[in-house]
Structures are given as structure tokens and as C-alpha cells.
Amino acid sequence: xxxxxxxxxxxxxxxHALIFDTFEQIxxxxxxxxxxxxxxxxxxxxxxxxxxxxxxxxxxxxxxxxWRVRIGxxxxxxxxxxxxxxxxxxxxxx
Length: 94
Prior knowledge:
Layout: E1 3-6, H1 12-25, E2 31-36, H2 41-50, E3 55-62, E4 67-73, H3 83-87
Parallel strand pairs: 1-2
Antiparallel strand pairs: 2-4, 3-4
């Protein structure tokens, strides 16, 4: 069952902390939805700063009255697919 956080029902000072705590607790394939009365673009920016490349952000519903976003863990790249981490360096500088 998909976890849903309806931020319209939560006091403003508590919203982001609850959302980030929820993200920290989901597994590598987990996700949850947030429901808001506005586009949560500022929250997306904060996720970009705090978890660059580590999350997914998919609009399930895009207003105008209700916005619903599914936030999840991004797929982890295998080390074989990343020559920098596989070799320990990017190779000789050009």
C-alpha cells in the first residue's frame, strides 16, 4: 500500500521534516506520495540539494486544486556501469 502524506493536514513547520524523515525510511525501491494544494517546486529544489541524483519525482496529479507527487529512491547504478568508480579514477587527463 502506497504511503500518502497529505501536507494540507500538517502544520507548515512540520511538513518538510516529516517528508525528509519518510524518504530516509523508505527502502531502495520504496516510494510515497505527497498531496498539496500547490505545486511543491520548492520541495523539489530542497531534494535536489539534499539528495542529488538519489530520488525520483513524478507528478501523479498536477493541479490546479490538488497536486500529488510520488517521491522514491532512484535506481542505484552498478559500479560496472560507472568507469570512474570501477577503476578508482577517470583515467589519464587529456
